[in-house]
């Protein structure tokens, strides 16, 4: 009987302490790309408790991906006790590979009167140094974020993800007839010779008509001699 009471007591305590901790679920949405390899180890999410806290030091935590779809989670977060009490955390992504937004997220846990724990999240926009606080005389409006089923962190620019090494665009100079000529030394030499054979007489004709005529005469004479020689055989 005594042990049963103790057991119930322990169970009760564990239930009470369970209600006094919070959980934050998040996901890095990489636009349908799964997170694999080094990328998963080079991105993490950090959490820092701000405002009032009941523990000796503000709670800090780091979360990494739970799966290749970018899910991450902070659990067992200490919360301030009491009705209408709030607990604040700031969460921020740290990544070597991506520029992510929001760059900082304010997390608010609130103990409602009916016993439920309310979770709110507000994003910090780039260019704003601090989260607007209720202590400021003219606070800016906090921009609320969806928390269910998770807080979404995205790429700053939704550009397609490219690998660090990428083959160059295959251009007109490396494919087809032109490509095949440029890539072969012999074909290139042939083309240059052909061009020279066509172009050389034209250039000579233009620069030096006398010599050009002499060359033509000489060629004709040689041909005549050749055919003459053939004929006389
Ligand atoms: C990501 O992974 C899931 C299962 O882990 C798979 O169903 C899905 O096809 C993958 N997506 C890509 C883009 O690789
Ligand atoms: C922090 O706690 C003190 C004392 O409990 C209280 O006076 C103060 O209003 C609290 N501040 C906030 C931001 O909740
Ligand atoms: C908690 O907040 C609600 C709404 O602001 C208020 O009606 C209620 O009196 C507060 N309860 C306590 C115990 O301060
Ligand atoms: C507690 O109150 C909030 C808002 O007042 C409401 O959304 C929520 O459903 C309530 N929860 C319960 C268990 O009554
Ligand atoms: C190469 O570039 C052209 C035009 O710049 C583009 O139409 C084509 O899709 C590109 N090809 C590849 C393989 O990227």
UniProtKB/TrEMBL annotation:
<keyword id="KW-0653">Protein transport</keyword>
<dbReference type="GO" id="GO:0005789">
    <property type="term" value="C:endoplasmic reticulum membrane"/>
</dbReference>
<keyword id="KW-0325">Glycoprotein</keyword>
<keyword id="KW-0813">Transport</keyword>
<keyword id="KW-0256">Endoplasmic reticulum</keyword>
<keyword id="KW-1133">Transmembrane helix</keyword>
<keyword id="KW-0812">Transmembrane</keyword>
<feature type="signal peptide">
    <location>
        <begin position="1"/>
        <end position="18"/>
    </location>
</feature>
<keyword id="KW-0732">Signal</keyword>
<dbReference type="InterPro" id="IPR031395">
    <property type="entry name" value="Sop4"/>
</dbReference>
<comment type="similarity">
    <text>Belongs to the SOP4 family.</text>
</comment>
<dbReference type="GO" id="GO:0015031">
    <property type="term" value="P:protein transport"/>
</dbReference>
<keyword id="KW-0472">Membrane</keyword>
<comment type="function">
    <text>Involved in the export of PMA1, possibly through the monitoring or assisting of PMA1 folding and acquisition of competence to enter vesicles.</text>
</comment>
<protein>
    <recommendedName>
        <fullName>Protein SOP4</fullName>
    </recommendedName>
</protein>
<dbReference type="Pfam" id="PF17081">
    <property type="entry name" value="SOP4"/>
</dbReference>
